[in-house]
Task: inverse folding
C-alpha cells in the first residue's frame, strides 16, 4: 500500500478519505470561522482528513487512510553554548538549506521591509544565483516596495514592484477558490493580484514564511504553563469570528456549547506537545496548527506559477530550533545579529520599527519617534481630506466601494448559499460590517464569502 511521508512543516496540505458518512463537518466549520483555519486534521467533510505533519501515512488503493505513524515530536533541549556559536550555526545552516533548495536555478525572491526575507537576501548576496526580487504595496497604502527596492539594490538583484489594486479579488476569486480549495479566507493572499506576473518569470521561489515565529518569543516574558490556554484562546480566536461561529453552532443545532468545545479542542492539541518551557511549547503548537493549516494553504498560489522552496520550513531548521535556548530566539536576536554583519542591509529601514533601522530600532519610542509619528499623521490626514483613503488592510481593497459591494453581495446573497446559511445571519454580519465595525467584522464577512465559494464548488 502507498505510504505518504509528510514533512515536519508541510508546504502543501494533503488529504485522505476515512470511513464515515459523506456529510458536512459542521463543528469543524464553526471552528474554521472562529479561527480562520481548521484545527488538527479537520476538513469540510466527516469522511475526509488532512494528513498530519511529521508522519508516515499508509493509504490503501482506494485512497483511504489506514494508519499514521509520527516520526518527529517537538521538543526543547537547548544547547548551552555561547550566543556567537549559535549565531554561527544558524547562519551556516540557513546558507546550507538555501543552497540545497535552489541549487543553480534562477531565484524569485519576495522582499518585504522585515527581517525574514532580508536574511534570505543576505544569503543570496553571497551566492551566484540570478535573483529576481520583487515586492508589492497596497494602492493608496504604505509604499513597502520602496524599502524592498533598497534591499535589492544593496544586493545587486533585479527588482520589480507591483501595486495591489482595488477590487482585484473579483477577477481572481474563482481561481483562488480552486487553488486553495477554500481552506483559507480570501483577505490574505494578495499575491493572487499579481499571479499573472509571476507566471511570466522563470525560476524557483524562495519564500521566507514562518521565520518570524521560529526566531522570536513563543510567549510574552513571564508566561507560565497555566497562562497558555487563556492566552492561546485570546490569540487564536477572532472575537467576531467566534460570534458568527457560535451563532451557526446554534443555527445548526449542534450538541453542547461552542466555547467549551473549542477550548477542549485546543487543550487536547496542546497536551500532545510534551514540552515544559511555555515559550517553546507555544511555538511548537503554533507551528503544528497555524503553519500547517493556515500559512501553508496559500503557498499553493505561488506554486501555481513556479516551484517553491522555504528555508524556514526545512526539516533541518525545525530540528535546529528545538536546540536553541529561548533567550537567543527571543526578540529576533539571531536574525538581527546576522543582518548586522552587513552594514548596507542593516542600515535600511525596518518596516515594523520605521523610520528606524536594524542598528537603531531601540529608539522607536518617545521622544525619538515623535517627529516621524506627527509628520506621518499629518500627511495621512491631508490625504484623507483630499479624498485619498489610506489603505492598511487587504479587505479595504476588496470590500469597500460600490463595485466591490455589488460583487460581494452576489456571492453572499445567492439562493444556493442562503440555503446553507440563512439570509438573516448573513445580513446581520454584512450590516455590522457596513455600519458598526468594519475592521473587526471584515473577518466573519470574509469567512462567509469563503463558505459561499466552497458551497458553489460543492453544489452536490
Result:
Amino acid at each position: 500500500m502507498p505510504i505518504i511521508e509528510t514533512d515536519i512543516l508541510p508546504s502543501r496540505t494533503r488529504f485522505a478519505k476515512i470511513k464515515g458518512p459523506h456529510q458536512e463537518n459542521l463543528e469543524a466549520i464553526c471552528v474554521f470561522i472562529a479561527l480562520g483555519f481548521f484545527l488538527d486534521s479537520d476538513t469540510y467533510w466527516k469522511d475526509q482528513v488532512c494528513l498530519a505533519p511529521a508522519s508516515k501515512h499508509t493509504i490503501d488503493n482506494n485512497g483511504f487512510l489506514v494508519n499514521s505513524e509520527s516520526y518527529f515530536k517537538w521538543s526543547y533541549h537547548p544547547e548551552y553554548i555561547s550566543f556567537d556559536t549559535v549565531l554561527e550555526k544558524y547562519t551556516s545552516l540557513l546558507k546550507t538549506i538555501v543552497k540545497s533548495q535552489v541549487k543553480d536555478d534562477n531565484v524569485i525572491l519576495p522582499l518585504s521591509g522585515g527581517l525574514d526575507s532580508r536574511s534570505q537576501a543576505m544569503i543570496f548576496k553571497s551566492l551566484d544565483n540570478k535573483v529576481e526580487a520583487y515586492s508589492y504595496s497596497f494602492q493608496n497604502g504604505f509604499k513597502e516596495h520602496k524599502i524592498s527596492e533598497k534591499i535589492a539594490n544593496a544586493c545587486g538583484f533585479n527588482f520589480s514592484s507591483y501595486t495591489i489594486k482595488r477590487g482585484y479579488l473579483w477577477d481572481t476569486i474563482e481561481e483562488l477558490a480552486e487553488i486553495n480549495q477554500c481552506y483559507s479566507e480570501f483577505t490574505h493572499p494578495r499575491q493572487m493580484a499579481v499571479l499573472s506576473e509571476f507566471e511570466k518569470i522563470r525560476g524557483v521561489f524562495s519564500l521566507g514564511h514562518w521565520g518570524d515565529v521560529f526566531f522570536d518569543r513563543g510567549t510574552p516574558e513571564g508566561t507560565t504553563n497555566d497562562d497558555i490556554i487563556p492566552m492561546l484562546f485570546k490569540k487564536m480566536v477572532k472575537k467576531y469570528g467566534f460570534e458568527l461561529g457560535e451563532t451557526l453552532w446554534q443555527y445548526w443545532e449542534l450538541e453542547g456549547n461552542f466555547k467549551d468545545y473549542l477550548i477542549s479542542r485546543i487543550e487536547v492539541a496542546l497536551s500532545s506537545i510534551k514540552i515544559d518551557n511555555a515559550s517553546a511549547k507555544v511555538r511548537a503548537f503554533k507551528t503544528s496548527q497555524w503553519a500547517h493549516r493556515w500559512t501553508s494553504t496559500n503557498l499553493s498560489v505561488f506554486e501555481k506559477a513556479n516551484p517553491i522552496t522555504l528555508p524556514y520550513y526545512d526539516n533541518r531548521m525545525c530540528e535546529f530550533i528545538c536546540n536553541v535556548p529561548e533567550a537567543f530566539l527571543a526578540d529576533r536576536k539571531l536574525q538581527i545579529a546576522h543582518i548586522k554583519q552587513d552594514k548596507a542591509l542593516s542600515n535600511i529601514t525596518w518596516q515594523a520599527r520605521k523610520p528606524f533601522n536594524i542598528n537603531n530600532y531601540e529608539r522607536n519610542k518617545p521622544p525619538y519617534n515623535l517627529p516621524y509619528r506627527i509628520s506621518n499623521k499629518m500627511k495621512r490626514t491631508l490625504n484623507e481630506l483630499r479624498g485619498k483613503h489610506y489603505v492598511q488592510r487587504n479587505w479595504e481593497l476588496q470590500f469597500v466601494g460600490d463595485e466591490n459591494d455589488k460583487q460581494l453581495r452576489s456571492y453572499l446573497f445567492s439562493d444556493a448559499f442562503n440555503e446553507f446559511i440563512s439570509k438573516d445571519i448573513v445580513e446581520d454580519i454584512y450590516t455590522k460590517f457596513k455600519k458598526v465595525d468594519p475592521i473587526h467584522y471584515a473577518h466573519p464577512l470574509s469567512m462567509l464569502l469563503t463558505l459561499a465559494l466552497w458551497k458553489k464548488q460543492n453544489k452536490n
Observations:
- The first helix runs from residue 26 to 35.
- The longest strand covers residues 131-138.
- The two ends are 30 Å apart (CA to CA).
- The chain has a mean pLDDT of 94.
